[in-house]
Amino acid sequence: MIGFEERALEELKLLAAAGSVPAMDPPPPGKPAASRGRRIGYGLAASVVLAAGIGVGAPMLSGGSAEAQPFEVEKRPDGGILFKVDEFRNPKGLEQRLRDLGLRVVVDYVPYGKKCAPGRFTESAASNDELNAIYHWLPWPTDHLLTDEESDFYTKGWTEIRPELMPPGATLVLTATLTKVEAEDLPDPGYRDGRRVHNTSSTGSNTMYRLADGPVAACALVDDPTQRGPVSDNGPTLPSGTSVPVRPAP
User: Fold this and answer.
1) pLDDT tens digits, residue range 176-209?
2) What is the number of structural domains in the chain?
3) N or C end of the chain, less CB within 10 A?
């Protein structure tokens, strides 16, 4: 199956052929497809645009002006709902704004190292294709050269939701795990496979989206042991036969 990143890159390649965006090389062979219902990048909808070489600032994880709206939402004449996140704060404000437009949705922002406790909802039997049709990057027009105003709009990294495609009674569940990690705050990873490794800082988000049948319980935060600090494998290789204690990653 083609993942979000691959599919969006194909869309952007069409734009490049039309002269709207810079051309790009195709994804390398064997590039894994995105896992079901998961989006990794700078916020909820920017990583593929960045991959195409178009400058888009990463959403702030916190802070910013108290008066500034942390998200933008609009409803299109054809019924599609667009949104983008500029600052990861006030998830329930975003949730309510989407609900005001008639969308059954639950939005949560989860800190790094945590996750929502499993079992909070019953997942819909919708297929990957059905889920991707409901929730996806906003497609770029390919039938004409974009005006400057259109280019500015489409490079902002909008996500489109199609409420009319959701099964009756289903709820869209959006959970963004925030990854603002400072290298010095992580435990020393020590050695891996005989090489000294070092922590690296990381900023961004990993967004998971699902369709739920029936009610969705509140997100009860629990530890997520699968999340580990990113490391760089740039240390010296130990001499053959050298024995060192291997400290597990956090």
Assistant:
1) 998 777 778 777 878 878 788 887 776 778 889 9
2) 1
3) N
